Amino acid sequence: MAEVWIKRDDIQGVALAGNKLRKFDLVLGAALADGADTLITTGAAQSNSARTGAAAAAACGMDSVLVLRGDEPDVPTGNLFLDRLLGAEIRFVGDVGWRDMNRIVDEVAEELREQGRRPITAPVGCSNPLGALGFARAFLELDAQLDALGLEPSCIVHTSTSGGSHAGLLVGRAMSPRNTPVVAIDAGQLFGRDPRPKMLDLARSAAELIEVELELSVDDLDIRLDYIGDGYGITTSGSREAIELLARSEAIVTDPVYSGKGAAGLIDLLRRGAGDGGIDGGINGPVVFWHTGGYHALFDPANGVSVLES
Ligand SMILES: Cc1ncc(COP(=O)(O)O)c(C=O)c1O
User: Which of 150, 244, 162 is nearest to 199 (CA)?
Assistant: First the structure.
């Protein structure tokens, strides 16, 4: 039996929640200071990041353009429904790769500039160095909460894809007296078989922005690729089990694309750690599970049905 503490980024009060709000908070703050009037960002059709960008832009009085992968469905559901409700302009670009999507974002920015607008862009997952710093700040927030609770977790476990959350947590940890291991459960394999170099680069660039020393090598990064199953967005038996367990025991909602896979990783690592454990294999409690949100995608039938299939 392990003690699990959950950091509830899934229920933040603004912009319908999720980890991306921490990133857009800084990115849009800087954009407003620069006089920007439109956010252009990108992601999958059910992107939580794009939806959060649209929500945060609306709350700041800015317009938003979302460059979304795939084709326009007949009925917008889940995040896509919210994108529309939030007033975002949506451009579907078909089945293109992540790098091409960031390139298309730049092209849209050029187009808007020619029309006299002042756009700013945010890449997939809002994982640029400034966005990642939102998670450095988040680590320090957790730090204070752990002090108040008198709690020393054996590690922090969170879901990861574009790496901004992980990179930021590493920067925040370097600013804190706590050296808690941070374990990323990769749900997207955006950077191939070894995402560590890209994530370390991002962490270094973020740390440079605020002049923090980051003494890390790739081997210090702990990114688990074992929980993706058949791919990004595809439900696994582990994620289904985790989603049901959290819903039925704690009434906490996770989703099959992101937080359900993170929770599946957490459960497996705790099972493997029950014994003598150790971070290289399993883990022991107490542990902090960083709930990064994402339940909105459950209201897309493709995702929701895959969870209830069993
Ligand atoms: C709900 C949720 N959790 C986790 C992640 C992964 O965060 P990051 O892209 O910072 O690695 C995402 C990214 O879209 C997300 O939407």
Answer: 162
Ligand 1, atom 5, residue with closest C-alpha: 160
**Ligand 1 atom with least separation from CA of 163:** 11
Q: What is the pLDDT of residues 247-292, one digit of tens each?
A: 999 999 999 999 999 999 999 999 998 755 455 678 888 999 999 9
For residue 259, indicate whether it is catalytic.
no
User: What is the pLDDT at residue 306?
Assistant: 84
**What are the boundaries of each domain within the chain?**
4-15+128-308, 20-124
Substitution candidate for ligand 1 out of 16, 19, 296 with most atoms within 8 A of CB: 19
Under CATH, to which class is 20-124 assigned?
alpha beta
Q: Do domains 4-15+128-308 and 20-124 have the same CATH topology?
A: yes
E strands along the chain, which residues?
4-8, 38-43, 63-68, 89-92, 119-121, 155-160, 182-186, 222-224, 287-291
**Nearest residue (CA) to ligand 1, atom 6:** 160
The CATH number of the structural domain formed by 4-15+128-308 is 3.40.50.1100
